[in-house]
Design a protein that fits this description.
The termini are far apart. Helices cover 16% and strands 38% of the residues. About 6% of the residues have low confidence. It has 232 residues and is α+β, with helices and mostly antiparallel strands. A hairpin with an 8-residue loop joins strand 8 and strand 9. The chain has two domains: 40 residues; 185 residues, Jelly Rolls (Sandwich), CATH 2.60.120.560. The chain has one helix and 15 strands; from the N terminus they run αβββββββββββββββ.
Length: 232
């Protein structure tokens, strides 16, 4: 009798263990499924690359419309933050080319909100380089701009370089920090402004290139400019 009771107890414990494991599996699958529905991808094994060293621009290239202007009169670094006066037009870009990444950029307007941008997939330098712009124009952050030569499936109106964002502006009040989350995977680009998905580009005709921060008429400050990539 005792032997039968022991077997019964063991069977009950085994059932409890099996049920507990099944519950855990179901919860994990539910979480992963929900994240997938939201389009969220968690990179577990990744490398982090800060695009600017926080001290100087020795690992960068600065392109300005006015060739007589000195770069440090337009771009400067203080306490790890990049400041641009917005004049003359131009940009500071990486010397390395990148593909398949998640790029983070924080920005804020120092004075009155104005215009700037984050350039990705730069192929050729120029004041308006061959690239895709992730717009920073005040209240337009989240728009794409296809500079001549760069194309995406969503660029239907060839008379307009801009592809408008999908949602109302998710920018914060002037003077507050905003964050761009730019996700590049193959020939697609998704951009989030302060955690709001604002635009998706598919079928990009270029899938890699330099990354740059723009000077375009207004003083703006950048910080925490880095990207993460899956380890090979």
């Amino acid at each position: 009798m005792k032997k039968n009771m022991n077997i019964s107890n063991k069977q009950s414990i085994l059932r409890i263990v099996i049920v507990s494991v099944l519950i855990i599996v179901v919860v994990v699958i539910s979480i992963l499924t929900e994240n997938n529905k939201k389009g969220e991808e968690v990179i577990v094994n990744y490398d982090t690359t800060y695009l600017f060293n926080g001290e100087d621009f020795t690992n960068s290239t600065i392109v300005l419309k006015d060739s007589t202007a000195t770069p440090d009169s337009t771009f400067s670094l203080t306490d790890g933050k990049i400041f641009t006066t917005g004049d003359p037009f131009g940009y500071v870009r990486t010397k390395a080319r990148y593909a398949d990444y998640q790029l983070f950029v924080e920005w804020r307007w120092v004075e009155e909100p104005g215009n700037s941008g984050v350039f990705i997939h730069i192929q050729e330098d120029g004041i308006w380089p061959l690239c895709l712009e992730c717009q920073l124009l005040n209240q337009k952050a989240g728009d794409f701009v296809c500079f001549p030569g760069f194309e995406i499936n969503e660029h239907v109106d060839k008379n307009n370089l801009a592809i408008a964002k999908m949602e109302e502006s998710s920018e914060r009040e002037p003077g507050e920090w905003n964050q761009y989350d730019i996700r590049v995977k193959g020939d697609s680009v998704s951009i989030y402004v302060n955690d709001v998905l604002q635009n998706i580009a598919t079928g990009t005709n270029y899938t890699e290139g330099y990354i740059a921060l723009q000077s375009e008429g207004a003083p703006v400050e950048f910080r925490n400019v880095f990207l993460v990539q899956e380890k090979n």
